[in-house]
Amino acid sequence: MDDLIIVGAGPIGLAAGIEAKRAGLQFQILEAGALCQSLVEYPIGMRFFSPADELAIGGYPFPTPHDEKPTREMALNYYRKVASAENLPVRTYQRVVRLEPQAEGYTLHAECALHQTPATYRARCVLLCTGVWGRFRRLQVAGAELPHVLTRYDEPIRFWRRRVLIVGAGNSAGEAAIRLADADAQVWLAVDQPRLEQCKFRPFILRELLLRVEEKRITPLTQAQVLRIAPDCVDLRCAEGVESLPADFVLTLIGLSPDQSLLAPLGVPFSEDGKPLHDPDTYETPVRGIFVAGALSQDGFIYVARERVGRAIEAIAHQTREESRHKRRG
Ligand SMILES: Cc1cc2nc3c(=O)[nH]c(=O)nc-3n(C[C@H](O)[C@H](O)[C@H](O)COP(=O)(O)OP(=O)(O)OC[C@H]3O[C@@H](n4cnc5c(N)ncnc54)[C@H](O)[C@@H]3O)c2cc1C
């Protein structure tokens, strides 16, 4: 039986693995997809808004040409090299589907995505670093499930000279509007606020958006509410009135919600935003031996989460030492 199983090999699962190795724990990392599957699914060519040093883990430098902010591809290359250099015990394509409590520790039931074979693992403690990626919120309107309604995109060129309605007032929606406009798509950006300046865009995203609005390459629709989506048009109410927009694609980027399916059956409580409650010092949930870290906890930025995951590993190492001392005595 391992001391620890880390579920998820995103940036924070890997950072946790490095800390676990340094703490002398016996552990494995199970990942549902490829290494850093979450980043694999980010838009191709996407640039992070953080500088490289804020994405670096384990003390490994992350150099980029001319100190530019890293692209998705640079980050994938970096995390791969770190995982290889540390020889981290990552098992890819192992999706954990159930956590079963035992007298001592947990059995993790997994499914191999490559061969559709089941597998089980045993560990005293489990650290979930499963992030929030992949659980896209959908609009609650008729037509939201139509095939041209997307919750993510990969290549901007797919939208060349097509009419795209982007719904969302956060950085992902803002960035998508910029990149699709630059790929010569005809872009409408529907936001819920009265002005783009009141949305949650980072300053550089807002600047780039306003530039393209001025050039008439992006049309903003403010105080917008989508009413209905049909195969060839979208009905919406906005500050400009009620519109029926002819759209080839609708891209809804309205946020992500965490997967609760592993934790809910164990009785872990969740906060209003759907994330699991946990001790802020140890990152242990109210269920003993079950820890969370990274984007699944409240730590959305990599530079914050990479530091704090050390607290969870420290607590796990402490629990492991206490239990073996207890066993020796008993
Ligand atoms: C477009 C975009 C841009 C971003 N830019 C920045 C930025 O510039 N700076 C910054 O600090 N943050 C940024 N973020 C946020 C950042 O990417 C996340 O905070 C970070 O990826 C969190 O890492 P994580 O390891 O906690 O989770 P994730 O990176 O989401 O990794 C979770 C992993 O767990 C795996 N997994 C999930 N369920 C299971 C299961 N049941 N069994 C096994 N494996 C499972 C997934 O496949 C995935 O690989 C950005 C996010 C997005 C979407």
Structural class by SSE content = alpha/beta
* Rg (CA only): 22 Å
Per DSSP, the total helix count is: 7
Mean pLDDT across residues: 95
Give the domain tally. Answer: 2
Main sheet properties? 7 strands, mixed
SSE order, as H and E?
EHEHHHEEEEEEHEHEEEEEEH
What is the top-level CATH class of the largest domain? Alpha Beta
Helix content: 25-40%
E-strand count: 15
The CATH superfamily of the largest domain is FAD/NAD(P)-binding domain
Question: Approximately how much beta-strand content do the residues carry?
Answer: 15-25%
Bound molecules: flavin-adenine dinucleotide
CATH topology of the largest domain: FAD/NAD(P)-binding domain
Q: Can you walk me through this structure?
A:
By secondary structure, the chain is an alpha/beta fold. It folds into 2 domains: 2-134 and 256-329, FAD/NAD(P)-binding domain; 149-252, FAD/NAD(P)-binding domain (3-Layer(bba) Sandwich). Helices cover 26% and strands 24% of the residues. It contains 7 helices and 15 strands. The chain has helices spanning 11-22, 37-40, 52-55, 72-85, 171-182, 203-214, 302-329; strands at 2-7, 27-30, 90-91, 94-101, 106-112, 118-128, 149-150, 163-167, 186-190, 218-221, 225-229, 233-238, 241-246, 249-252, 290-292. Strands 1, 2, 3, 4, 5, 6 and 15 form a 7-stranded mixed sheet that branches. It has a 5-stranded parallel sheet with strand order 7-14-8-9-10. Helix 6 links the parallel strand 9 and strand 10 (218-221). It binds flavin-adenine dinucleotide. Flavin-adenine dinucleotide (FAD) binds at residues 7-13, 30-33, 36-38, 42, 46, 48-50, 54, 95-96, 129-131, 133, 172, 294-295, 300-303, 305.
